Amino acid sequence: MGDSKAPAAAETGTVLQAGEGNVRAGFAALVGRPNVGKSTLLNALLGQKVSIVSPKPQTTRTRIHGVLTRPDLQIVFVDLPGIHARQTRAMNRYMNRTALASLADSDVNLFVVEALRWTEEDARALDELKAAGRPILLLINKVDRAQPRERLLPFIKDMSSRAEFAEVVPISATKGSNIAQLPEIIARYLPESPLLYPADQATDASERFMAAEIVREKLMVRLQDELPYGLMVEIEGMGESEDEPGKLMIQAVIWVERTGQKAIVIGKGGDLLKEVGRNARLDLKRHFGRPVHLELWVKVKEDWSNDERALRNFGLES
Ligand code: GDP
Ligand code: MG
Are 23 and 194 in contact (CB under 8 A)? Predict the structure, then answer.
């Protein structure tokens, strides 16, 4: 996936820092049998391809986070593999496990079905959703090709009675019908929370993880026993330099939990931080095989290590 920019953030021109203002942020899983259009919907919501779409079922094999960031809102989408009836093949068993484990963790679950089609497999997915106990938004997709047209309203009515859905929204992921208002609807079910991912990050990227690890390693070497508990490195920005093509620009934040720890990490006259930055830059250059410009910031976020959401933000799932 590499280092991609979130179109939502680019459109609004607003970049929020974690912890600023009244932001709603949380996890929304996309659930439904294969081929109902979950990946297509995710891509439509994010305005770019982050997930594999194909006319064949079972294209999606792992969970993919797509992140939608707006000034007041961040939705972390989890595009789940379909829930499969027969658990014969190992891949199907794996896919089922991944899907089920995520449902109860979501702030809200998006149940995607296909207009005018209701199968055993849909019913089973709905049962799992009910068991997860989180609010369920029913998204009736592919309304663009619902024929005959007059069967659509009765279908929606019938579907609405199958569970206590928080919302029922007919959509077309390919035509874009009712897609624009979905983020606001989803946001009603998200808690107030700092951003879970950097505002410019559209999807999980392992390059960022590697960069963060390298910076953290240099801090550990230098601080040893003084290394503050709960120190974390977060890559806030990573991309090609506009002035010097080929040069990698990396902005990293070192999160600590107390102001006193911040002083330790910075060191006298900023010496410690400078040394860490120098060592990290050399290693990053080796790792990425190109020149690197590294900016380091030290910021305080109180007691974040007790916060499950913050842990997930940093990729540390419990
Ligand atoms: P997933 O398995 O649920 O992730 O489904 P995909 O997103 O891979 O979509 C399966 C197929 O349905 C693809 O061929 C899509 O182009 C198609 N599809 C998805 N959404 C719509 C829609 O709103 N209308 C129509 N007509 N086709 C759609
Ligand atoms: Mg898919």
Answer: yes
Is residue 69 lining ligand 1, measured as CB closer than 6 Å?
A: no
Q: Does the pLDDT of residue 234 top 50, yes or no?
A: yes
Closest CA to 44 of 104, 110, 134: 110
Any idea which fold 207-313 has? Answer: GMP Synthetase; Chain A, domain 3 (3.30.300)
Residue 2: left (phi > 0), alpha (psi -120 to 50), or beta? left
Q: Do 86 and 114 touch, CB atoms closer than 8 A? A: no
Per domain, the residue ranges of the chain are 23-193, 207-313
Separation of CA 54 and ligand 1 centre (Å): 8
**Strand pairing category for 64-70 and 136-141:** unpaired
CA distance 166 to 189: 9
Residue at token pair 């953290």 = 216
pLDDT exceeds 70 at position 61: no
CATH class of 23-193: alpha beta
Instruction: Return the residue matching tokens 């089973």.
Output: 124
CA distance 133 to 97: 17
